[in-house]
Amino acid sequence: MDKDKEMSGKEDKVTEDLVDNQESGVEAHVDEKEEKPEKTPGNEANHDAEDSEEEDHEEEGVDYNNFDKAQLLKALKDIVNQQNFIKSDGLVQEIKNHYEEYYNKEKELAHKQYVADGGDEEGFEYRGADEDREFFATYQQFKDKRHEQIRELERSKEKNAQEKNEILDRLRGLVDGEETTNSIKDIKEIQEKWKKIGPVPHNQNKNLWASYNALMDRFYDNRSIYFELKELDRKKNLESKLELCEKAEALAAQEEIKEAIKSLNELHEDFKHIGPVPREEQEALWQRFKGASDAIYNKRKEYYDSQKEVFKANLDVKVKLIEKLDTFKAFKAEKIRDWNNKTKEILAIQKEWEAIGPVPRESGREINKTFWGLFKQFFQHKNQFFKELDEIRHKNKEQAEKLIADAESHLESTDWKETSNHLIQLQKDWKELGPLPEKFRDNLYGKFKKACDTFFDNRRNANKETNKAFEENLAAKEAVCEQIRESAKDKDAISPEHLETLIQQFNEIGFVPRKNMKEIASKFNEAVNAYLSHLDLEGESKDDFLFRLNLNKLQADPNSNRVLNKKEHGIRKQISDLENNITLWRNNLEFFASSKTADKLKDQFEEKIDKAEQEVDKLKKKLSIIREF
């Protein structure tokens, strides 16, 4: 940069000497091709060097070693969206190299797994994940857009070169023409248009600038007011460049270093195009502007140096996360919920990892490899679990299809009770099936439910006819109850035999609606009790009749057999207990000695034995009555 400044000063001195010779009447001939553009401290070579330094430094600030595939894909998309295709080519190639490293490792693992599973070496074909296809499609999109941008840039540069040549033609007309009142206005307009025109092809840039500066010098040299205009113009340029110096110095207070560098580059561009300043101010001005620029560059250097400690701290945090993740590598579970809960914890750790930021470059690759290795190991175990679960679901699907076929085979059955029990058992079996494939679960359940519902709907329709018969039975039983109540009023006609006949009639009538069962049973018991209250029965014959009557009433119960069996079992137990007591008491009598007190106790035991034997006889008679039913 100092060398460029020195050359700029020498070339400017040559131009001044030529002008001085013309003013003193000395003829001077300068070929336009030999004239050089006036160099300024912000010339293009200097500016390009700064741009290059900025780009290099920016690239050094991004460490893609720490990026996983998803982050690399996002970084590539961000670059494509920024439309900065030409300058970003180096970054994109670095991103692609890192991504291909992941891709090739995954391909190699897939190939090993394929061979381990018995696959043919030549038959292996790796398709990759959707994320891979998206990445390479995005990379191809970048290449296409970059090529198009290069072509567009070249077309734009050619167009800019044509526009600058047109300006040069116009400028030559002003230089070779006569002085007018509009000459200065025209020359300022030309300067403004020249500044606004963008870059031109590199091989034309130097000649265009040389021609432009030479023509501008000739324009001022050829005018009688050259020195006055030039001094005024240089003073104005000085004011403008001093203003740029102030802006550059103010950037030192800006916290965002990237924005400061961007603004500084814009100031360099303006500094370059403003034009020369008075020679005595040139060096001091340049030193001030350079000092302000160096302050920004030093600040940027300090920032990147300070990041080394931050990167080291980030490394320590990531090491702790790896230790935390290491506890998950042997995790096993049998329930989906447990896997999902652990997955949430893993993803939370991943989120912490991604929020930490970069680490020192020399540690980035290894620590990144360790973390994502553990991360992938957990999900490999999880995938294995779900693979086995899919096999279980497939077997359950086959069992579900058998249950559906079984249920559908009973659609037209009219054996309501047996088929109902069978379908209820099928429904229990369905509940115990276990998980089914998500894709088929609703459809399978829909078929099974439809088969069961169809049968139960048919049974429900058939029950409507049955309910009608139950209503008729209810009316018939109410009539018998009324007959029993009316018969009880005729004292001459009542008899145990007549009552038994009416009860038998009641029992022979079929079922009544479930909602009326308790009501009709209550009416029946009230009618029978009213009849019994008019019967003249005494002693044992009354007990036997009432027992027999109770058994007759039980015949109306749908569970009469079970009730009779239970009653018989209870009587047999009573008999057994009484007989055991009788045997015990008789044994005890043998131990009583002959005395007045002993005789009294002996009489009490004999009385108990006698009562027990009578009770046994009664119970045995009840057993014989039960056998009649």
TrEMBL record:
It comes from Cyclobacterium plantarum. This is DUF349 domain-containing protein. It comes from the Bacteria. Keywords: Coiled coil. InterPro entries: DUF349. Residues 139-170, 595-629 form a coiled coil. The keyword Coiled coil applies. Residues 1-16, 26-49 have a biased composition (Basic and acidic residues). Residues 1-62 are annotated as: Disordered. The keyword Protease does not apply. Residues 50-62 have a biased composition (Acidic residues).
